[in-house]
Structures are given as C-alpha cells and as structure tokens.
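re: that chain from earlier
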Amino acid sequence: MAVSAREKKSKLILDVAIKLFTSKGYAGTTMDEVAKTAGISKGLTYFYFKNKEDLYMAVTKKAFDELKSVFRDIIKMKGKSGLQMLTELTHLYFEFAMKNRMYNDAILNFMGILQLYNNILTRGQIHPLILESEHFQRLLEIHHDCGKLGIQMVSLGIKDGSIRPELQPEVTFYTIWAMIIGYERLTGPVGFEEKEIKIHLDNWRPGFVKLMQDMLKGTIQAQKPQIVQTSLF
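^ sequence. v structure.
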C-alpha cells in the first residue's frame, strides 16, 4: 500500500523528534528545533502534533510498538519451551534497553504516568496536554499488549512442563517482568564501583537469569538447618 504524503510527513517529524529526544533529552528539545531539523514550518509541525507533549506520547507509542515486536519475535520462535522464551526475553529486553535508551525511558515514564492516572486523587498531577493527546489515549488501549504475549509464554511453559504447573500465568509474568525492569534499572548502581558490596555486572546477570529460571522451574527449596546433637561435657 502506498504511503500518503501526510503519513510521510508525520513519520519525518517523528523520526526527527526521536533523534533529538535521544541526543538532547525531552526537556532540551523544542518544537521549533524539531521543525527546523525536519525542514518544515513550525505551523505544519503543529498540524501533525498539537504540542511537544503530544509528540512525546507519539514517540512513546512507537517505543511500545518496537518493544512489542521483540515479544512477537520470541513468541514465534519454533522449538522453544516457555521457559526458554522467558529467558530469551530477559536477554533481548536488556539489549533493547541498551540500544534504545530513549525508547526504554519513554516506556518507563509512561508507566509512571499511568500510576498517577489510575488514582483519581493523583490524576491531576499529569500535564493536561498529555491527557488531551490522542496518542496517550491510544497508549491506554495497547500498553498491555506486551503483557499478553508474556502471559502466553508462561502458559506455554506450564503446558510443556518447563514451568511448574501451580503458577498463575498473569501473576507470574508480571512478577518476572517487574524483576527484569528492576534489574535493568539497577545496573547503574551495581555498575558503579563500590568496595563494600561483592557484586559485579559480569556475575550478576547470569546469576539473575539462573535465579529466575529456578523460580519458574521450582528448583528453589528451603533447606532446613540440620540439628547437630552435641554435648557440653
């Protein structure tokens, strides 16, 4: 299907915004700069995206689409167990976050916005232009798409026996997802040299993956302390 002139212009603005948000950050980027870099008028830029908040929500939507493609590629893998898919997801998400720092930050920023949005008492803290963005409204509809694919991976693992059967797929995936996101966020603090803690990125990552696998397989078992009978005399 041929791409219309409108779609081409919208994509151009979006691509330029992504480059500027990546290099200068959200706060350091202006709509004037986006228009100038794209080689179009400021008025035309505002025709496609109402304001910078609307543009950032469009970028966030694209970030979710890119992350969803990672999930889709994994779920399509042939001959992989559910546990292997979740392990692959762990590695590919780390790679996604490293190569697409701005996308990852946009996704996490939206999660924070959504936390405010879910509570009527805190919804007023969200910038009103974000709430008015059609892209924000679209994000509300699709932000669970990745989760649905992840739940499929867990369900597949339970079915094929690679994940223990008593686990509830929804709870299990979102717990693993929280662990993966938390790991990625903590690579900064762990990577910063600290003599008092004995953990380094080169041994934490394989340890993290193994712990996740053991949790899902059910190989983690509490060890009762052995009672040693001794005599004081």
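DSSP finds eleven helices and no strands in the chain.
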